[in-house]
Structures are given as C-alpha cells and as structure tokens.
Amino acid sequence: MKVAKFGGSSVASATQFRKVAHIINSDVERRIIVVSAPGKRFKDDIKITDILIQLAQAVMAGKTCDEIVQAVVKRYAEIAKELELPADEFLAELKNDLHRKMNEYRDNPSRLLDAIKASGEDHNARLMALYLQEIGLEASYVSPREAGIVVTDEPGNAQILPESYEKLYHLRNRRGVLVIPGFFGYSPEGNIVTFPRGGSDITGSIVAAGVKADVYENFTDVDSIYCVNPSIVENPRQLREITYREMRELSYSGFSVFHDEALEPVYKAGIPVCVKNTNNPAAPGTWIVAKRNHLDEPIAGIASDTGFCSINISKYLMNREIGFGRKLLQILEDEGISYEHAPSGIDNMSVILRANQLKEGKEQRILARIQAELKVDEVHIEHGLALIMVVGEGMERAVGMAAKATTALAQANINLEMINQGSSEVSMMFGVKEEAVVDAVRALYQAYFQEAVVGNEV
Amino acid sequence: MKVAKFGGSSVASATQFRKVAHIINSDVERRIIVVSAPGKRFKDDIKITDILIQLAQAVMAGKTCDEIVQAVVKRYAEIAKELELPADEFLAELKNDLHRKMNEYRDNPSRLLDAIKASGEDHNARLMALYLQEIGLEASYVSPREAGIVVTDEPGNAQILPESYEKLYHLRNRRGVLVIPGFFGYSPEGNIVTFPRGGSDITGSIVAAGVKADVYENFTDVDSIYCVNPSIVENPRQLREITYREMRELSYSGFSVFHDEALEPVYKAGIPVCVKNTNNPAAPGTWIVAKRNHLDEPIAGIASDTGFCSINISKYLMNREIGFGRKLLQILEDEGISYEHAPSGIDNMSVILRANQLKEGKEQRILARIQAELKVDEVHIEHGLALIMVVGEGMERAVGMAAKATTALAQANINLEMINQGSSEVSMMFGVKEEAVVDAVRALYQAYFQEAVVGNEV
C-alpha cells in the first residue's frame, strides 16, 4: 500500500482537488491520503494557514474576528461550490469549530495558535473525504486522534511518541481510502499540538512508517528534486534517485524540499519516498531510497546556505593542552549556542555557527569568556560566511572529487575560507564569503553536472 | 649581540671544536655560546649522552661502572689531546664529578639519570671554554645556575620559570665569550633537571630571549632547513626564510629541525633564529622570523607524519543535539587522550588522534563508552592514517592553493581520507592512508616546488 501526502498547492482549489482525486483513483494502492491546508492558488494569494494565524492573533489582541472567520469559510466554500458538493453542514461545522476553539483557548495563546492553525488541515481533510465520497469512492476522514498520532505536549513543536506506530498499524485493516489531516497530533492529555517546520510531511512520514507502507508518495508542485537550487542555476538537472543520507545532507543547507524531521520516520522504517508533481503525475519524480541503483554519478547535488559566522581562536601550543576543545565547546553550550563545525589546526581552532544565535550582546560575552577562561592569544569573529555542501554517495570511492571542486572554484577566482572533507562519507563542505556563494555554486554545478557524462538524469 | 648554539655533531671532535672556534672568532657579536654534549663523529659512532645513559642504568642495576666511566673520559681526553690542551685537571674533575653524582643519587633513579646525562653538556662547555682561552680568547664557562636558568623540579621535563629571564639579562654585562652548557637548568631546590626533547635548543632559545639577543644562531650539520623531508624527496629545495608559525606547523608533523618548545621563548621575545651549518658557515642558512620578506612563494614546506587513527561516529540528527561534540571530547579527556582534530559533518563526527595512546584495551573501552553514553548509530576506528601539512604564510591570500594540492594528489591516484583547511591561516591538512604518504608528499612537492616559479630558494 501507498501513503500519499498532498502539499498546500496540491489542495489549494477545486481544480487541484480534482487532480488529487484522479491521482488517487488511478492507483488502488493509494489507500491513505494526508492533506495540507489549502495553499496559494497564485503568486500573491494567501494560504489558509496564514489567515488562521491572523485569526489567532486577532483573538489574542481582543479584536473582532468575524471578518477573518468569514475569509476562512469563504475559501472552503468556494472549493465546495466549484466541486458541486452539498457542503452546508460542513461549512456550519467549520464555523462552529473555529468559534469553539476561539472561546476555549482565549486565555492560552500557544494552545490557541496550535488549535486554530491545525483546523486548516483538519477541515481540508474533511472536505477531501466528502469530495471523494461524492465521486463514488469509499472514503473516510480519520482524525489524528482516531489514527493514533500521539505526540509530546509542547505547542508548535510536537514530537511523535513511540506508541503511535503500533496504533497506526491498525489503519491497514480499514477499508477504502482514508483521509488524514497533516500537521498535528494529540498529546496524551488530549491537546491538539502542531509539528514543527515541515508539519504535514511529518504526518505523512509517520503514517507511512506506522502502516509499513511500500512507498511514501509526497505530492508537490515540481516534477522532481533538482540537484541544485533552481534560483541559482537555471533549469538544473533533475534527480531520479537520491539516498536518505544525501537528502539529509542537502536539506541541511538550503534544500527545502524535505525537512529532516519529516525524513526520519521513513528512513528508520526503510520506506522509499517518491516526490511527485500533482500537476504532472506522469513524470517519474524523484525517489529517496536507502541505496541508489544508479551510482555512475558520484555527486547527487549541491546545496548552500548563508548566515554563518566563524569564531577563530589561536593560542601557541594549543594542541598540547588536553581539554582545550572541550572547554571551548562547554562555553558555547553554557550560552545555549549550537555549533555546526569545529575544525582545528595545530595552534588554531574555529567554530562555525549560525550567526542568528548571537543576539543581544551574546557575541561580546562569548568572546570575553573565551579570552578570559581559555587565555587564548587571539580570538575574533568573522561574519558573512556561506557554507556549500557537495553531496553524493559515490564520493568516497572516487579519486579526484575534491580536486574537481577546488579547481572549479579556483578557476572562478573564489577564495576558500574553509574545506571540511572526510568526516562525512557522502559530503564535502566548503566555506566561502557570502558574496561569492552564487558564483561558487554555479562553478561547482558546471564542474560536476555539465562537464560530466550524463548519468543520474531523468 | 648573538647567542650561538652548537649541536652535538658540531662539537663531536677536535676538528669540530676548531670550526666552532673559527666561527666564534669571525664575529665579535657571538658573545654567548651554548653547547651540546659531543655527538656522533661518524654514522655508527655513539653519542656521549648515550654512553652516560648506559652509565646511569649500570648504577641503577648495581653493576660495575668503571669501564663506562673510562669510555666517557676517553672521548673528552681525545678531543683535549688533539687540541693540545693541558687537560689533566679537567679530566680529573670530570671523573670526580661522575663518581660524586653516582654516589649521591644512587637511590634516586630519575635524579641520577638527569644529573649524569647533564654532565655531558656541562663538561663539554668547560672543555670548550678551556680551548677558547687556550687560543687567546677571553672566554669563561658559565654554569646554568650562575647564568640563572631556574626550572621546575620535574626530572626530564624541566620547564623554565619566568624569573630566569631577568637574571639571564645580566649576562649582557659580562665581558668576553660566555660558554653555557645546554640541556639542563637548576630547580629552586638546587637539583639538576634536564629539559624534554630538543634540550640544548631550549637552553639556547631561553638564553637568547633572556639577554634580548639580536639573533639566535642555531648551528647544526645541514646548510639549511629543507622544504620537505630529504628522506622522501631527494635534494629538496632549501628554505631561505620561514616564519615562526610556519616552523611550528611544520615541526608538528615530522620536521625535527626545531622542536616546538625550543621555539617558544624566541618566538615570544620576537628574536629571529638563524639555522646554520658548522661545516659550511658561509652558507646563508635558514632564517626563522616573525614576518617573511619573500612572500612570492606562498608555500614554505610540506611535512608529514604517520601513526594516526580516526574514530568515526555517525548518528542521525547529530547536529541538532546541543552538547554532542563536547560530551565526546569529555570522554576522551576522561581517558587521558589528547586529540589532534575533530572535524564534523551533519550527522558525523571524526576524532583524529595518535594511535599510540590507545594501548591496553583503551580502544575498546572508548568505543564502548561512546556507544553507550552518546547512543550513536555507528562508531568505528580506522587505523593507519598519515597526516600531511602543507604550510605557508601566503596561502590565505592565494586563490587555488587547495586546487593545486588536490589536483596533484588526484593525478597521483591518491584517495583523500580527509581535508582540513581554514582553521589555520597558514596550513592545509590532508589525511591519507599510511601506505600512500610517500607518493602523496612527492606529488605535492612536485606541484608546489617544481612546477612553480623559482622564488624562496637559496
């Protein structure tokens, strides 16, 4: 059986609902459907989720909310009307549900926000089930509570509890198509709690792992995952296949297709993921798998991200001092700083971290502590760093991978602030100044994907 | 003024004594001389220091020592005789001194070893002073106690105490040539304590820093420092100039010319070092300086060392876990392990360390602790690693340095286990399998020194 998740743009309008129904209809294995809330229909459209956030904020601010509630109801009503659904009861219940939550959580902002946001997915799943029934499918809405999605009780940051998987497995015994809203679960105390970033993807992944699906299909609005950010390289190569590890390393820095936490349940259960396009379901999409069949292309992709900084420390005879690195990392931990990498030389050590953690004097305090507690010769911070990851399962076996990258960067006249290769078997990391990152990624793309023999290509 | 230190081979025989005298005579600025014990005169010769170690061991074992004492006396007697010195008194005092120490420290092995070893340098300094006087120089032997070399009381591992420098400064006021034995100082309690590796170099460096010399001359038996180990590359390029930082990074891995601890006092005092050849004093030698004048050659040298291993750890979502790296380093610190580098990827971290630290089940214990305490997905250890350092002050400013190295290694078909660039401004580090290290160093030498424009060359 397959679990198919449809993202916001895939369920944004009646037209999209029809495409989804067609996709479900065309494969009897698609028995469990996870849906997002209606997303954008056009570039400047507003997502239902964003309207719902406005609603929650209005409640908290004690403002009148009728107009916002109307805007929410209108979006669903339009879809229902165009699909010619008998939706009066559905729309009345939607309105009641919003008002009920607005009252119940009026004095509890974080609960209110979670409950109101979650209703976007919840009612869309109900509407989808209604539509599928209307066109003659045996379909039913299944709430996350009924499905067994039990999560920790931390608003906006739900983590799945292990007992969920056993409960979810029983969904296999249900007849027909099951439609489950994404993005939230219920805590053991019975509260609605939303997942962090990538919410509906997480639901889909958890459900796929729970029911031991053969495939987790993730329907979105692109034909495939690209090997590089299409806003940096025009019409980049499409990936036919990528491994979990490759996806994880790429999603770390700028590949927003699939968030880490969404990948974990299927990765651990060994269930392949297929990323497909709702608007072009005939395209083969991109498979995320444990082991690639096509290894002729050692590099899977190139990702990049900006906003890093580097704390650079030097101290004569540093490497003789047992415990130096540990003490440095302890200072960062005390200050609540999560670091990315800590490469060291003989008398030098650098710590690379996301600069947005250094607010409100924290930078000065950390530098002062390093100076005072570690008695270093010099410490300074370098801002404006970008990290580039070149990722591929074939990298470890291929001689000359690093040479190709560094030569391409040198030819593009890009100075390398950092190279980190060898700690991961599937990636190399390069640090460059932020202003050089676009040129650097283009140079690497050129070297790995345009000069290479055509291999892992659709 | 100059402080000139003469190594073991420079003071091994009467012929060498004459060369030293000639060198001292040829420059009035050479006012303080530091001497080693007589070293090897030919390939299979034995150093005085090694005979003295045998002597100490014989005393500890309760064996008869007369023959060994005779062997020591004979070496000095031969030098004295060939130099036509009236040395009866000197030789009698040498013999008395050895017997006095053998008796005094009979029941204290580490003190005995230090005292006996130190007498090699001590009596050579006395003999050198005698010879310089004999040829008409105003010269005097100055003991480390008289000079003011006060050290910590740890046998075989003396560390200079800061009050020494002020005392040493007064040597500037003494007339004539002062001859000081290298390798040892006196603890505040009055014990003879020897320095760790590079002993006489340390004395020379401390004295140069104390008297605020203009130059610290280090006389040895090569014309210069080479840019790469001559046992790996035949007739490698000689270095005219190198910075303290470059020297430090090179000496870390295989450059035995100048030990770290010997460089520290002159580095901190900003005193330039000139490494010269006693057997060819006309050669310009190699200058070790704070700032190179010749930066046309960005790379100063290539060093390598074997005997490393890498603990490789992977754990899904490792980089989300605040404190992971710190906890790992804490385990190593608990086990008394000093690590070299700890590069990390997204879900991976490696720790590179010298394998000789992992004796007696420590390897298994550390792996088990990492597994149990950090709940990692996988941990394993990779033995047989070599590290190669490419070192140069010009590296940071030059685009393409890494490309040159990685391309050369790829062309030599060498797989890179690790690249670490960016933490140090003056070096890049490469990890390769031990069996590939010679080919790798040769390939790098070829790339940086044989294809490059001739620059930093004698």
UniProtKB/TrEMBL annotation, chains A, B:
Q: Which UniProt keywords apply?
A: Amino-acid biosynthesis, ATP-binding, Diaminopimelate biosynthesis, Kinase, Lysine biosynthesis, Nucleotide-binding, Transferase
Q: Could you tell me which pathway this protein works in?
A: Amino-acid biosynthesis; L-lysine biosynthesis via DAP pathway; (S)-tetrahydrodipicolinate from L-aspartate: step 1/4; Amino-acid biosynthesis; L-methionine biosynthesis via de novo pathway; L-homoserine from L-aspartate: step 1/3; Amino-acid biosynthesis; L-threonine biosynthesis; L-threonine from L-aspartate: step 1/5
* PROSITE patterns, alphabetized: ACT (PS51671), ASPARTOKINASE (PS00324)
Q: Which GO terms describe its cellular component?
A: cytosol
All residue ranges annotated as the ACT domain in the record: 390-458
**Biological process annotations from GO:** diaminopimelate biosynthetic process; homoserine biosynthetic process; lysine biosynthetic process via diaminopimelate; threonine biosynthetic process
Q: What does this protein do?
A: Catalyzes the phosphorylation of the beta-carboxyl group of aspartic acid with ATP to yield 4-phospho-L-aspartate, which is involved in the branched biosynthetic pathway leading to the biosynthesis of amino acids threonine, isoleucine and methionine.
Concerning its family, UniProt says: Belongs to the aspartokinase family.
Name of this protein: Aspartokinase
- Organism of origin: Geobacillus sp. (strain Y4.1MC1)
